[in-house]
Amino acid sequence: MQMFGSFDALFLARAQFAFTVSFHFIFPAFSIGLASYLMVLEGLWLKTGKGVYANLYRYWLKIFAITFGMGVVSGIVLSYQFGTNWSVFSDKAGPIIGPLMAYEVLTAFFLEAGFLGVMLFGINKVGPKLHFTATCAVAVGTLISAFWILSANSWMQTPTGHEIAANGQFVPGPSWWAIVFNPSFPYRLVHTVIAAFLTTAFVVGAVGAWHLLRDRANPGARKMFSMAMWMAALVAPVQIFAGDMHGLNTLEHQPAKVMAMEGHYQSHPDGAPLILLGIPNSAQQRVDYALEIPKASSLILKHDLNAPLAGLDTVPEDEHPPVGVVFWAFRIMVGLGFAMLGIGLWSLLARARRRLYDWRWLHRAAVVMGPSGFVAVIAGWVTTEVGRQPWTVYGQLRTAQSVAPLDAPAVATSLIAFIIVYFAVFGAGTLYILKLMGKPPEPHEDAVPTRGPVRTAGITPAPAIEGGKP
């Protein structure tokens, strides 16, 4: 407890939420993309009859089940924190946030829960089309869940469509559509969902590359690596474009966040430089040892080399976000995004030369990039959430006004408990997932009778993978 003795309840409550939501975020970021990947695999099996797709489906289904379960469990904790550490925020913003979270449960969670059992345990009990329907339902459910959660978060970033009641609560205005489709929501939704797809692609690519380094002829490893590299090559450029559009939207609605991202303490009336690297010095209001490209920031943000850009000197000091954290988190995210693009382009070159499964350094690089998606989404989340400070509801409710009246020792005790339990439970789950990934995809599954129904419910897709051939 002494290690937290110098911190107040506000800091500890923020640290606790940041810790728990960071653990939680990596699981949905993986399960959203993995559910869609499973849908594609099963759809390709039904279309082509090639057993390799069914084998890969079974391989990744086990990993998806564990990831999905850890995502659900880690998400429940966040809901409790709204009622404990952030009860004032829940009281004031509850009429807006509460219904949005309820819509997520009613539309997404119920859909996922209703079909998840069929997806996980029905592959030998129902017909292939019904099973594929269940897989599609779960994949769509994860996307619907992302829709509502990001709508709620985006409203906190760019609040619109609400009114403030006499008791200080945020209440819905005449139309819920203005709340749901707030100004930053479409950009954040696209950017986050694509990030989830890329996260999954690089995990799949890393696993494929790992096994290619050991057995270049493994058909499952070859197929998953090829599919992942197509995703990297085609989607990484789209993500960079989507991120640029999201940045322009942020400049319009949250300019202080962009100032912190860019390290612009001072205004630049004749074109702002793009600071590539440096050490933000908030005490002196400058970036030390800056490596910069003159006027490039104005070109990116305003599409004009000489366009003026305002700096944090135009923002009240008590409304400055923590520049150092935002500055570096943003660069980690962008740097990894361009590294993903580089791997994608490298794979295209290898594919063009018919060496996709032979270039060992490409495979090694893909293995190293396996965790990059998780790091990038966490860095993006830090950029978004820390850059919003000192506001919970941007421009209208401060974080200091949102925290519950708790004593620091009480929050510190629960934070320590979370740290211990999370590393034990989710650490064990992650190690088990890595163990499953360490096993190569089997060339074929156990055979089942090729004629007649396996059970009265229908026939299994497994006959098509007997011996690894359709």
Count of individual domains: 2
Strand order of the largest sheet: 1-2
Q: What integer is the average pLDDT? A: 88
| Sequence stretches where pLDDT stays below 50 over 5 or more residues | 445-470
Helix and strand string, N-terminal first?
A: HHHHEEHHHHEEHHHHEEH
Number of helices: 13
Q: Number of DSSP strands?
A: 6
Strand content: 5-15%
Going by helix content, strand content and strand pairing, the class is: mainly alpha
Shape: globular
Distance between the termini: 61 Å
Biggest sheet details: 2 strands, antiparallel
Q: Report helical residue fraction.
A: 55-70%
Cα Rg: 24 Å
Report on this model:
It is a single chain. This protein has about 475 residues and is mainly alpha-helical. It folds into two domains: about 400 residues, no CATH class; about 40 residues, no CATH class. The chain contains 13 helices and six strands. α1 packs parallel to α13. The longest helix has about 40 residues. It starts with 8 loop residues before the first helix and ends in a 32-residue tail after the last helix.
